[in-house]
Amino acid sequence: MCGIVGYIGYREAYPIVIKGLKRLEYRGYDSAGVMLFDGENLKVSKTKGKVSDLEERASKEITTNGSIGIGHTRWATHGVPNDVNSHPHISNSGDLAIVHNGIIENYAPLKAELIKRGYIFHSDTDTEVLINLIEEVQKKDNLKLGKAVQVALNQVVGAYAIAVFDKKTPNEIVAARLGSPLAIGVGEGEFFIASDASPFIEYTSNAIYLEDGEMANIRLHKQMKVRKIKDDSLVNPTIQELQMNLEQIEKGGYDHFMLKEIYEQPSVIKDTYRGRLHANEGLIQMAGVEDNLEKFLNAERIIIVACGTSWHAGLVAEYIFEEFARIPVEVEYASEFRYRNPIINSKDIVIAISQSGETADTMAAIKLAKESGAFVFGVCNVVGSSISRETHAGAYTHAGPEIGVASTKAFTTQITVLTMIALRLAKAKGTLSNSLFHTYLQELVIIPEKVKEALETNDRAKEIAAVFKDAPNCLYLGRGYNFPVALEGALKLKEISYIHAEGYPAAEMKHGPIALIDEHMPVVVIAPKQGHYDKIVSNIQEIKSRSGKIIAVVTKGDTQVRELADYVIEIPETSDALSPLITTIPLQLLSYHIAVMRGCNVDQPRNLAKSVTVE
Ligand code: M6R
C-alpha cells in the first residue's frame, strides 16, 4: 500500500519521479504528490486523485528542473484521501520532506508530545508525525539527517519504507525500511529509490533491496552506507541484477493490465513448471522441496496461510494435497490465524501463499508459525519479497510482475506450484499410483495449451457480460475442486465491477442462498464433466425450477447442462484435479468484460491496493 519513489543524480528528477509513480500506482491511487528541490527551496505539489491528476497540477506548481526529488502514490490509512493528507509531508521548519509507505502505530502519543513542544500539524497522517519527530530529534542534539532518522525510527512502532530529504544537506536522501519493501537502484552517479524496481529498470539493472530494519545514506558521489537502524552496525549490501524488463511492466497493446495478465497465463504457467517438471523422465524437482523432503514427508499436517485470491489457491491445494499426498491440510485466513491462539506443532508444515510477498497479515502468520517451531514454506511471486525471505524455504511462481490489482495469473501459477509439490510428495510417499502420477505430469505439461483454448471463450464471455452487466447480485457455485474457483470468480466480479457476488459450494445452496434465487438472479455454475457432474446437474435443476438465470461453464460437447442452462461457456476437458486451472479462465474474462462495460477502473478498483501491507 502506497508507492514511494526518489531520485538523486544528474538527470531531471521530475519526469523520473512521475513515471515511477505511474508504475507504482497499483500500490495505491487515492492521492499523489512530489517534492523537488530547486537548490534553495522544497517545491511540493500534491493532490487527491491519481498520478495523472498530480501531473496536471504539478505542471502549474512545479517550476524547477532540479535533479533531486521524491514522490508518493497513496492508499489512505490515517486520514481521508485529500490534498493535505497526501505525501510528501514537510516538517514544521520547512526543511525536511518525507514520503512513507506503512503505518506508525504509536503516532498518537508521539504527536501529543510534539504538540506540547510547539509543533503544529496540518494533516491527519502518522507520516507528518514522523517527519516532525525527525526534525525534533535533529534539532535537539544537532544531528545530521541520517542520525536523526535513525534515532527517530528507534522510537516508532509500526511499519515503514521511507525516503527523507533535508534541504540543509541537499546531496543526500536517507531511506529506511521495516515491514514495507524498498529497492535502491544504483546507477553511474545516480541513485533511485522505489517500492519496487519498476521505476528504474530502464536506467540501471543493479539494485539493492534493503532488508527489514536497515537504512541507507544515499549521497551523491559518495559510497552508499547501509546500516542497521537498531544498533548502527554497518551492513555490506548485496547488489542484485534485476530480472525485470520493460515489456513485462507495460500493457503491450492490451487495454488493461488485467487482460494482458489473463492472456499471459499459458506462457507463465509454462514458466512456472519449466526446469521443475520433467514429464518424460517422470520427475518433479523443486529445490525448496528436495532440500526439505524429509520434513515434508514427516509432516503430520499442512497449514496453509494466505489472504484473498492466494487463500483461494490454498483451498484448491487442500483438495490436491489430501487427494494426492494424503496429508491433512487446514487452510487459514492469515488475518484470523494470527489473532487466535492456533495449535501449531513442530511437525506441522506451514505454507504461506502470497503473490506480492508483502501482505502484512500473511507475514504476521509466518512469524507466529516460526515462533511455534513449525517449518514455514513460502509460495511467492515477487522475487526477494519479505515473505520469500522470512520463510525457511520456498518456491517462486515465476508469473512475472502482476500489475492489475485483481489477481489472475498469480492464482493459476500458485495452483501450478502447489500441484507440483503435492505430486512430488505423492511420489515419495507412494500415495498415488505410478500410472496416475505419470498421467498428471503429462496433463500438466499440456495445461498451457488448454488454457489457451479456454481463452477462446473471450467473445462468449463478452456476450454474456453484456446481458448481465447491470445485475446487482450474482451467485457462483461449484463443487469439490471447483468450489474455490466459485469463490475466486465471485471475488473477481466484486472487486472490479462492484457487483455483489457470493461463491458457494453448490450443495450448500439449499441451506440458505437458494432463498435469493428468482428470475433476476444470475447464477454462474461451474459444471465440468469430471468431478461431481450428476450432483451439480441436480443443483442446476434446483436453480432452474426457481427461475434463476443459469450461466454454466461446461466441458466441450456437454449436452445435459446445455439443455438446462440459459448460457453456456465451453472449456476443454481436463482431470477433475487440474480443472481449476481451466475453469477459472472464463470467469476472469466474464468479470473483466462486465467491469469494462460498467465503466469501472479495471486495473485500479476503488478502495483497493495491490499489496496490502497493513493489518
Ligand atoms: O499479494 P498477496 O497474494 O498476499 O495478496 C493477497 C490478497 O490481498 C489479494 O489476493 C487480493 O485479494 C486481490 N485483490 C485479489 O484479486
From TrEMBL:
GO BP terms, alphabetized: carbohydrate metabolic process; fructose 6-phosphate metabolic process; protein N-linked glycosylation; UDP-N-acetylglucosamine metabolic process
SIS domain location: 292-431, 464-605
Gene Ontology CC, one term: cytosol
Gene3D superfamilies recorded: Glucose-6-phosphate isomerase like protein, domain 1, Glutamine Phosphoribosylpyrophosphate, subunit 1, domain 1
Active site: C2, K610
CDD domains named in the record: GFAT, SIS_GlmS_GlmD_1, SIS_GlmS_GlmD_2
GO MF term list: carbohydrate derivative binding; glutamine-fructose-6-phosphate transaminase (isomerizing) activity
Catalytic activity: D-fructose 6-phosphate + L-glutamine = D-glucosamine 6-phosphate + L-glutamate
EC assignment: 2.6.1.16
Domain Glutamine amidotransferase type-2: 2-221
InterPro entries, per the entry: GATase_2_dom, GFAT, GFAT_N, GlmS/AgaS_SIS, GlmS/FrlB_SIS, Ntn_hydrolases_N, SIS_dom, SIS_dom_sf
Pfam families: GATase_6 (PF13522), SIS (PF01380)
Localization per record: Cytoplasm
Keywords: Aminotransferase, Cytoplasm, Glutamine amidotransferase, Repeat, Transferase
Quaternary state and interactors: Homodimer.
Cited function: Catalyzes the first step in hexosamine metabolism, converting fructose-6P into glucosamine-6P using glutamine as a nitrogen source.
Protein name according to UniProt: Glutamine--fructose-6-phosphate aminotransferase [isomerizing]
Organism (species): Flavobacterium petrolei
Gene from which this protein is expressed: glmS
